[in-house]
Amino acid sequence: AARSSGEKYKAYVPSMGQMFLRRFQLVTQFRQALESDQVSVHYQPKVALPSRAVLGVEALVRWVHPEFGRLDPDEFVPAVEAAGLVDALTDFVLDKALVKIRAWLDRGLRIGVAVNLSVRSLANQDFPDQVAAALERHGVPPELLTLELTESGVMADPARALPVLRGLHTLGVVLAVDDFGTGYSSLAYLRQLPVDEVKIDKSFVFGMGSDLGDLAVVRSIVELGHSLGLVVVAEGVEEDAARDQLAAMGCDVAQGYLISRPLSEERLEAWLQARTTK
Ligand code: C2E
Ligand code: CA
Ligand code: CA
Ligand code: CA
């Protein structure tokens, strides 16, 4: 064991060094990237089940880096978060989302936008006031804005997160628990959170066609969510069979590649146009 770990050591050092360097570069370049056109927001549609009416979209950040190309948010968002820079990202996405909602309203369309929150926002006691001011500034009714938070984000520091959630809830924005089912105290805590919507993690939705365990998890989240009066959303809907099964269970909303991939602003407009003129 000692001999092979010595060999591994040699092989791993440079790549870890490179990863560290890349992460360091990403973090130091992030603010500037936000101000240039490297960072943008894409939108993934959410549709009602079974009608398939478009209810809203989820805002998902995209970064096309001049050296590294398209970056996966699962790589840079955690890095930006760890470096304490995520508030700038949240402000950026929230602002784009509100501009978008307002522009749609001006064209007679009521389409909501969901924005992903970081743990940091939930620890910021001024966050509800900041959101209220942003809604006011853009002339957007609160019910068209959804804020998605993860259970682990809430559980990181519930004593600080709860008053922030209550403040947001009082404003009338929609609160959604993202990646539901992946945390481990899920069921007990969901009851105590002032939330409106639960999003079933895509890992269970992917597996539900072939794995009875995943199917059981999905079914019980739908039932639990409904018994708590929540809207239940399934993400990661890639196949007709999954959509039909979800609709049969009474799941309220579907999001996934079957409906659409996340789209640039321009492509989203074309997608919406095609849907509404059909
Ligand atoms: P998430 O909030 O769970 O977002 C859903 C992710 O699932 C997105 O990945 C979306 O593209 C992907 N997805 C949706 N439908 C399907 C499907 O049918 N199949 C598959 N395979 N994937 C699907 P994306 O855009 O790469 O984002 C990854 C994560 O990065 C997000 O997970 C979220 O945690 C984070 N993120 C993205 N944008 C933001 C942001 O603006 N702020 C913060 N704080 N985090 C963000
Ligand atoms: Ca999300
Ligand atoms: Ca999710
Ligand atoms: Ca996720």
Automatic annotation (TrEMBL):
Molecular function GO terms recorded? cyclic-guanylate-specific phosphodiesterase activity
Q: List, for all copies, the residue spans of the domain called EAL.
A: 23-276
Q: Report the superkingdom from the record.
A: Bacteria
Alphabetized UniProt keyword annotations: Membrane, Transmembrane, Transmembrane helix
Name of the protein in question: Diguanylate phosphodiesterase
